[in-house]
Amino acid sequence: MLILRYLFYVLIFPGALFTVLVGWLLAGLDRKVIARMQRRIGPPVLQPVYDFFKLVGKENIIPAQANRTAYKMAPFISFVSLSVIMLFIPIFGFTAVNGVADLIVILYLITIPGVALIVGGSSSGSPYGAVGISREMVTMMSYELPFVLALLAVAKKAGGDVLVFNLTDIGEWQVMNGCMAFHWSMIPAALAFLLVIPAEVGTQPFDVAEAETEICEGPLCEYSGAPLAVFKLSTHMKMCVMSALFTALFFGGIRTGYVVTDVILFLAICVLVTLVCITTVHAVTARLRIQHLFKFYWKYVSVLALISLALVWLGA
Amino acid sequence: MILGNYIVSVFLIVLGLWTLCTQKNLIKVVLGLGIIDYGVNLLIVSAGFNEGGTAPIYNLAELARREAVFFVDPVPQALTLTSIVIGACVDAMALSIVIMIKKRYGTVDADEVRRLRG
Amino acid sequence: MIQHFPVLSVMVLFFSAFLIEIVGKKEILRNVIAFLAVTASLVMLACLIPSVMIDGQVISYWMGGWAPESGYAIGIGYEVDSLSLLFALLGITAYWLSCVYSFGYMKGKQNLGHYYTLFLMLAGASVGFFLTGDIFNMFIMMEIVTFSAVALTAANTDKLTAIEGAFKYLVNCSIGSSMMLAGIALLYMNCHTLNLAQLSAILPGSFNSTTLLAFALILTGFCVESAMIPFHPSFVDAHTVAPSSVSMILSGMVLKLGVYGIIRLSYIIFRVIDTSAIQVMLTLIGTVTMFIGVTMALAQHDFKRLLAFHSVSQLGYIIAAAGLCTTLGLNASLYHAVNHTLFKGLLFLCAGAVIHSTGTSDLDSLGGLSKRMPKTCICFVIGAFSISGLPPFNGFVSKWMIYQAVYEKAMQTGNFFYVVVTVTALVVSVMTLASFVKVLHSVFFGQLRKEHEDVKEVSPIMLIPMGIMSFLCIFTGIFYREFDRVFINSAVTSAFDNIDYVDGMMGDGYSVTYGLAGLTGGNLEFSYWNPYVWLSLFLMVFAAAVLVTLIMGRTTGRTLESGEDYDSAYGTGDLSVDFRGQTHESGDPEEKYAVFFSGEKAEYSHAGGSDLFWGFKYNWHRYYEVLQGLHSGSVNDYSIYAVIMISMLCIFMYIFMR
Amino acid sequence: MFDKLIKKSALKSPWLFHINAGSCNGCDIEVVAVTTTLYDAERFGFKIVGSPRHADIVVVSGPVTLQSRDRLIRTLAQVPEPKCVVSVGSCPQSGNVFKGSYAIDGPLEKYVHVDVAVAGCTPKPQAIMEGLYEAARILEEKREMIRKAAKGVKGS
Q1: Which among A70, C128, C242, D78 is placed 20 to 30 Å from C71, CA to CA?
Q2: Cis bond upstream, residue B74 (ω within 30)
Q3: Which domains are present in chain D?
Q4: Residue ranges per structural domain of chain A
Q5: Is D78 in Cβ contact with C592 (below 8 Å)?
Q6: With an 8 Å Cβ cutoff, are A35 and D40 in contact?
Q7: Partners of residue D40 in chain A, C-beta under 8 Å
Q8: Which of D10, D50, D146 is opposite residue A212, by nearest beta carbon?
Q9: Closest in C557, C583, C592 to D146, CB measured
Q10: What is the rounded distance in angstroms from the CA atom of residue C379 to the CA atom of residue C401?
Q11: Distance CA C652, CA C272 (A)
């Protein structure tokens, strides 16, 4: 019986299918809103679905110099790990699988898709792939510092003097003393987290690793057909996972009694978060160079997160 | 406890460390190691000193009579023996390595013998 | 019979070391003797597990039967409690694996005569160091370890610079051991005994200036041995040039001597770890070592030098966690020590395999070896992912425990310094991942060079230890609760209450006369990471994904292997004429499967080694200029750093411990 | 299982890859102008991608010069099936003003079966849009052919 429940969780509700659909929804809305911001009609909201199935229909070429197993396995690992992460993030009181992962574990589980992309790009044997993975790794290094600072600030705020890393407990704490985002000392951490999401997902200003113009899609340069479709899908799923994590950590205190209304409200906030942090930033800015991206994250965003960490440590 | 022993042993240790840090010639560096070792050996020997004690040698008769013969502590002397042996081995190995360095690098100047860096 | 096993396991190794010397040049016989000796020692130590680890009994063995008389320890005693047995077992498994590996690795070398003698001396001395109960005996064993390690490094004729590395290592280690000897002399002046148990009964209460100075000096000796921050350059130099089976031991085991020494010294002998000053000092040393080790590793061009700097940084993790003085902290530190020996040993064996087959260890001149050496590539990937702490592997478990312990300490003491330690630890872990992505790409993936076309996979005798180690890496990563309960918890409890340690050696009731009370370390519960559930979920989705692709694959057109043509795939003889009948004739098939070079002919172009992470190095170039200047490579500079560190430790003792 | 959806999506999300076979950049600017706000090719799912492996429609502009001929053929070979070739401007069709020059190596038709040719010395963006949409429709047909061929192989 437990297996069936886990199977349902992992394949249907908060696991693979739910994340895929929400990812497509977020990506479709993202492209549509950007188009609207530039006063053009823009693609239909279902465009990511069409992209995915068009790529699935295409021929899948494996370059001769590629290391076949790693090349084929990379997209799988990325897709699978993302769909498993979604189970541990509490959706307003409903946590699919509780007691398996806490803040630090989520932080590491989120690096697996990044590493899968890197292994894929490096095993394809193309020089563009090499440059792409080097930029991808530097991006990961740069957004890790503010990400960690924000998470530790949340843990300290929710914990007081006992160590609280479990997401569900953070949710319960927010129910009692109001959402994390409404505490003034946590506003800088929320802002820092919002700035980290586009870098982690790899959208416009921070997509230095998959820059179409300079290094023709970096690690994805050699991918075509179904593996490319899965990689694009996992980028959309990252959008869903990261905005869900943000909502769970900073707006976790909202409870509406029923799971269904909880989920709908959760999705609404996720869409709002994505539109704020990914779409507007994408529509407003141009792509950064890699050292500016690194400096931006280690100087400005981590100072923002540090402010709230210091405030929380001073008891605010 | 003779204060003089301490001053000399600390002086020897500091002198050894000074030669290590400043002398460029590798053989002098090895000598510095030796000097540190001598300083420490002196420290160990003077650790076991008792005022007016005699050498810890006695025969069964004396032991049977249980006279209050006052001995110098034998344990540090054993330690010093081992430490001198170790010091000798360190010097022997270090000097043989310096010979090999001279053969391979052609010089014993510490500033040239630093290909492993950065 | 169990009673004599501690000494027997050491004596077997020393005895067979000299037996091999007599046997001389016959290689098979030498290998057999070495293998038998190491296996015998491993079996003997393994027999001690049930009584020491599970029942918590402390085995004491007095050389020559000189039991303590009227409260004074006269003879040299061997004492085995679960902390020392854990390290001894860890050591002997590393030696066993390295011995099997060196059968294959050392086959061609000509100065093989003394390799196994020195190797077994190294093994015997380090097992003796862990099991001994006498502080001077510890010093002797450390000297033997230094001697054999220096001799093994210097004997590596492949590397021209082996001699230089060996010399610097010898100079640095003898400074450390001389300081330690001075410390032992001062201790003897004060307590007139050399036995660890008696020392740990006398010392904790009464501190005067000589014992404080003795603590500082002995701590320096162990910091030198475990390559802490100012002493690490000479260790890294020696490590780069030693033969790979010896580098594995150097990084896996010789560093753990220092760790064991520091834990034994501060937790049991001096019992000084519960003062917050010492905790902050040890954690600070660990954090600075962690950071400098990994930043230097990112800028390296040589495969083994990069791994050596990573050993230094992982040791920083271990010491930082050990300095917390909470049960979870020491638990995390010991677990990370075990994991570090496993994954670092695996990485070094892979490096040795690469050097054995290609002849070079320069990252800029390697590339694309995964096609020629697939098994080594798999082992390397497992090792790289476990050192950078990705979930299913063992590195993740211990690093996760370390973050939990450090942040819990921060929460309890409200001291912001531990938050800085947690953040540094997390950022350093990402940089470790970065440097191993760099190595993975520049050595195994990417494009194969012309001169490495005919590289063959290493012989199976070298692959067996690599396979065993990768299995252990995964095993300790997934079944970490069982492994932890049996091995690590008992070591932590024996480190925290030293009453058993003292009574076990000096007879019951001895510690009562000195009013000894064990340390309290807080509760040891860490939850929220359940690898079985995560792994089963992962496999469920993985099976579903494979199922979907098989179904989808049939209808949409399956993957075309390179060289297989579109027409042969679909047998569309007639179709291809009208529907596509154009470029295909003119474009030859391998063009289609060549790597996209924006139109150019796909010739060799591999961006690896030092070309990666330009953005990061560009931002930190001033930091790197200073840091690489400090690692100047000259013996004098290393001695100056050593002297500065010794004086700082001594001054620290007087200011804070008064 | 998803054949109807895959066939429809081949029409709904054609990705472009631009190859400049020695053109005077007049047509290149027009091709990019198609994706701007006024003409908005993204409405129909057109997107300019960076690598030929991701492309469905290959937009070629310029008379095939000697230098760019081999690179053109090689890149075209690297595009996965089903693919279309659209030539923009009259240079690829006839060499335009450069016809007969020593550096030109004949019309694009010599090397690749051009599915849609948009004529005009810098054709208007509306014309390019029309051509691209026509190419997308051809793509859908090609996709249908592949599916029949794949079914044929399994069927027989």
Answers
A1: C128
A2: no
A3: 13-137 (3.40.50.12280)
A4: 2-313
A5: yes
A6: yes
A7: 35, 40-42
A8: D50
A9: C557
A10: 25
A11: 14
Mean pLDDT computed over C394-416: 89
D and C: touch, per 3+ CB pairs < 8 A?
A: yes
| Contact residues, C window 571-600, toward A, CB-based 8 Å cutoff | 590, 592-598
Decide: residue C136, CB within 10 A, 0-12 exposed, 13-18 middle, 19+ buried: buried
If contacts are CB pairs under 8 Å, which of residues 58-87 in chain B contact chain C?
73, 75-76, 79, 82-83, 86
Work out the minimum CA distance from A149 to partner chain D, whole angstroms: 36
Beta bridge partners of D88: D61, D118
CB contact under 8 A, C553 and A226: yes
Distances (CA, A) of A64 to A125, C205, C275, C553, C595: 9, 71, 62, 21, 8
Q: Is residue C217's pLDDT more than 90?
A: yes
Instruction: Output the CA torsion sign for C541, C546, C547, C548.
Output: positive
Cα dist. D121→D34, D68, D85, D91 in Å?
A: 16, 20, 18, 8
> How far, in Å, CA of A53 to CA of A43, rounded?
16
What 3 state SS string does C21-55 have?
HHHCCCHHHHHHHHHHHHHHHHHHHHHHHHHHHHC
The Cα A140–Cα A166 span in angstroms is 24
Contact yes or no for D113 and C580 at CB 8 A: yes
pLDDT mean over C305-320: 94
Distance from CA of D35 to the nearest CA of A (A): 10
Across the beta sheet with D57-61, what order do the strands follow?
Answer: D47-48, D15-20, D57-61, D84-88, D116-118
Interface residue D152 vs chain C (CB under 8 A): yes
Say what the pLDDT of residue C580 is. Answer: 36
Separation between Cα atoms, residue D79 and residue C591, nearest integer Å: 11
Which chain C residues have a beta carbon less than 8 Å from that of D68?
599
B66's CB contacts (< 8 A; 6+ apart) are none
Shortest distance, CA C639 to any CA of chain B (angstroms): 5
* D1 interfaces chain A, CB cutoff of 8 Å: no
C43 touches chain B (CB under 8 A): no
Give the pLDDT means over successive 10-residue stretches in chain D (156 positions): 83 92 91 90 90 92 91 88 90 89 88 91 92 92 81 59
Rounded to two decimals, the pTM is 0.92
Note whether A262 and A94 are within 8 A (CB). Answer: yes
* Chain D, window 28-87: residues with a beta carbon less than 8 angstroms from a chain C beta carbon: 51-53, 68, 70-78, 81
- Domains plus CATH for chain B? 3-53+74-105 (1.10.287.3510)
Bridge partners, C79 (sequence order): C60
Cα C206 off chain centre by: 36
Rounded CA-CA distance C578/D113 in Å is: 10
Whether C599 shows a pLDDT value over 90: the answer reads no
Is residue C137 pLDDT above 50, yes or no? yes
With CA atoms as reference, the chain C residue closest to B92 would be C147
Q: How far apart are alpha carbons C56 and C48 in whole angstroms?
A: 11
Give the Cα separation of B30 and A176 in Å (integer): 69
